[in-house]
Design brief:
With 310 residues, this protein is an alpha+beta fold. The strands form 3 sheets. Strands 8-5-4-9-10 form a 5-stranded mixed sheet. Strands 1-2-3 form a 3-stranded antiparallel sheet, sandwiched between helices. A two-stranded antiparallel ribbon has the order 6-7. A hairpin with a 2-residue loop joins β1 and β2.
């Protein structure tokens, strides 16, 4: 690392934050240099061990956004005399697609961040703290692509399960209680024949724990979220597959399905062993208020007893 650059940074930085950020930039600059050297060395090795039928045509420069900023590296372009195909051996060895502009790690970071934060915040975070550029439009597109790929994978697994009657091997996780909460959300449609549809959502978790201890705040343990716009049968098939992949359901003590009373939610009980359905607390309380609203004292006693499990 350039000692002169470090000295200039120390003189220029007004506070620790600027010093830390500046050192990160210098470190990432070094990482970019190493990455270029590694890639071009690998390309040289591939050239030395290539098949005799591969004829060198030229060397091309490729730009790729990695964690820490963009890099440019040279790699060789070949023509296979046996097949007539043109190939970049380095791209093939690295699994890089022809028009891919960002490293797999950068794309993975963008997708994971975009599932938790707005797309513009993802763009800002990657630019300011990891010195790499991913536009909010690109982050949105990558999330859509990952979602479609996941849907296709799930559909293929469901089709195989229905055709063979065999489930994929599970992780085999065993718990005493497993909670499954489902609900439907009516949403407006654009440019569709129907004006509204129902988005079916589900959350699976293993209970609650205080986080941090003594704070009075709780979080769901081992939470999984899934959903879809299809029919209830499709929703429950997807949920059943997801749970079978994670848990040894026949060994789970109890599966408790919470919902608002909708028939499609209650139907889920039939798919899982040791499962029973119950109204969620919000709707249970609302029904009790409707039944005992005129008698406040009785209502209070009933609500307290029911919520206490007595």
């Amino acid at each position: 690392m350039d000692s002169g650059a470090i000295f200039r940074l120390i003189q220029k930085a007004e506070d620790f934050k600027e010093l830390e950020k500046g050192l990160l930039q210098l470190a990432f600059a070094l990482v970019r240099q190493w990455m270029v050297a590694v890639l071009e060395s690998l390309d040289q090795e591939l050239a030395a061990t290539r098949e005799p039928s591969l004829e060198l045509i030229r060397s091309d420069v490729r730009t790729l956004e990695i964690v820490g900023g963009p890099i440019q590296f040279s790699r060789r372009y070949y023509r296979d005399r046996a097949t007539g195909q043109y190939r970049y051996l380095l791209d093939e060895a690295l699994g890089l697609e022809g028009r891919q502009r960002r490293s797999p790690l950068v794309e993975q970071m963008a997708i994971e961040l975009a599932t938790k934060f707005p797309y513009r915040e993802v763009e800002r975070f990657l630019r300011e703290y990891l010195f790499t550029r991913v536009s909010h439009q690109t982050a949105h597109a990558r999330v859509q692509e990952a979602g479609h790929a996941r849907e296709e994978e799930q559909a293929a697994m469901q089709a195989a399960m229905e055709a063979t009657g065999e489930l994929p091997p599970p992780e085999g996780r065993v718990v005493e209680y497993l909670f499954l909460e489902a609900d439907g959300l009516s949403i407006a449609l654009q440019r569709e024949g129907e004006r509204r549809t129902e988005l079916k959502l589900g959350i699976v978790h293993e209970g609650w724990e205080e986080d941090p201890p003594g704070s009075g705040r709780y979080r769901l343990m081992e939470k999984q979220v899934f959903g879809g716009l299809g029919e209830s049968r499709t929703f429950w098939a997807s949920a059943s597959l997801a749970l079978h992949q994670r848990y040894a359901l026949e060994k789970v003590g109890q599966i408790i399905l919470n919902g608002d009373g909708a028939r499609w939610i209650q139907e889920g009980v039939e798919l899982f062993p040791h499962a029973h359905y119950q109204l969620d607390r919000f709707h249970l309380r609302r029904h009790l208020i409707q039944a005992f609203g005129h008698d406040r004292d009785t209502l209070r006693q009933v609500v307290d007893s029911v919520l206490a499990g007595s």
